[in-house]
Structure formats: structure tokens, C-alpha cells
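Hi C.,

You asked whether I'd gotten around to modeling the 77-residue construct. I have! Everything is below, sequence then structure, no commentary in between.
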Amino acid sequence: MSAYRVAALAQGQTIKEIKADYPTLTEEQIESAIAYTEAYPKPGRPYPVRSFRRAAGALAEMGIFDAIETGTESAKE
């Protein structure tokens, strides 16, 4: 995982949350990624500030996926 992606996650998540989503990263690696990207900003489009897991979890809590039909019910009719 690139330093830029880790630093982007740190803008929207705590270090503890990043470690939970990416257990192979250490706190030192996360802090180093943040420092590196501050010294050498990434040109171009920014990365998302939340991991897919957290973004999908937030959508699930809102009930977004409750309205999605799996197709199994309509196949029985």
C-alpha cells in the first residue's frame, strides 16, 4: 500500500481505525506515511479518506443495502 493512500485514510480515520482495517501496518509506518506525504505531496486526484470497509459499513448502517433485491425472491415467482 502506498504512503499516499495511507495518509489519505488518516485524513478521515484515526490511526487505530487504519490499523484495524490494515493490521499489517504499524503505527510507526502510518505516521511515517503521513510525514512523507506532507513533505512530498501527491500530484493529481486525491485518494478516498475512508477505507472501502468503513464506507460500505456506513452505507449498511443507513440501510442502503436493505432495498437491493437479490433476485432469489423474484426467481421463485
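If it helps when you're writing up: The helical segments are 3-12, 15-21, 27-39, 52-62, 72-76.

Thanks,
B.
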